[in-house]
Amino acid sequence: MQYLFVTRRRTETFPPEVWTPELAESESQRVRELYTAGVIRSIWRRKDTPGAVILVEAASEEEARAQLATLPLNQRGMLELVIMTQLDPYHGFGPR
Predict the structure, then answer these.
(1) Cα gap 94→96, rounded to integer Å
(2) Which domains are assigned to the chain?
(3) pLDDT digits over 38-80, tens only?
(4) What integer pLDDT is reported at residue 90 of this predicted model?
(5) Alpha helices by DSSP H, the chain
(6) pLDDT (tens digit, 9 = 90+) per residue, 4-47?
(7) Sorting pLDDT into bands at 50, 70 and 90, what band is 89?
(8) CA angle 88-84-26, nearest 5°?
């Protein structure tokens, strides 16, 4: 199953000095690992606020959330999962 997560960085809680290049690199590294493992199918940066939109492949919502819980920003409480929804295939592409 696929799940769509809209995330937001909690910039109102954490001062600018904690958003270091090292932290960004550790986040990027974990995203690459999850992408390579087939957990993250796609990821986009948000233009409206710091954060991302992440398409996750998992057997359940709990598994999807558990995988995203391994992201360094999420582990530090610096990331908020704003919206999550399960996705179903679009029926218009199937046989009639």
Answers:
(1) 6
(2) 2-88 (3.30.70.1060)
(3) 999 999 999 999 999 999 999 999 999 999 999 999 999 999 9
(4) 86
(5) 21-36, 61-68, 72-75
(6) 999 999 999 999 999 999 999 999 999 999 999 999 999 999 99
(7) confident
(8) 115
Which contacts qualify for 51-55: CB closer than 8 Å, 24 or more apart?
Answer: 51/6, 51/7, 51/8, 51/9, 51/79, 51/80, 51/82, 52/7, 53/4, 53/5, 53/6, 53/7, 54/4, 54/5, 54/7, 55/2, 55/3, 55/4, 55/87
Burial letters 33-63, b for 16+ CB under 10 A, else e: ebeeeebbeeeeeeeeeebbebebbbeeeee
